[in-house]
Write the structure tokens for this entry.
Amino acid sequence: MTYKDFNEFCQSLPATAYVVQWGGSHVWKVGGKVFAIGGWEKQGEPAFTFKTSAVNFNILKDEAGYRPAPYMASRGMQWIQKFKSAKVDDDLKYYIKESHRIVSLGLSKKMQKELGLNG
């Protein structure tokens, strides 16, 4: 997945907002809360960071091409970074969509309703 593909996919999710921050990273938010980040690569390949469930965190942290997200996971947050080409972009799209869902569920019920989420 390229950053262009990443941005197009994140934009297709409901009630999202885009900002460039943290050293030029592509940051996607729902209700003002971050759900996906494109950037922070160290290997010369695009890197993508997203929030996960506890189960997915425990699975992905040991998968080839994934790792606990720098800075976030070290602070006890369940965020994963895909940092090497993995088998299929569909997997990454699933995890980004799931991150969007997890983060949106953490918003107040009022905000969820205003944004038309989780109805």
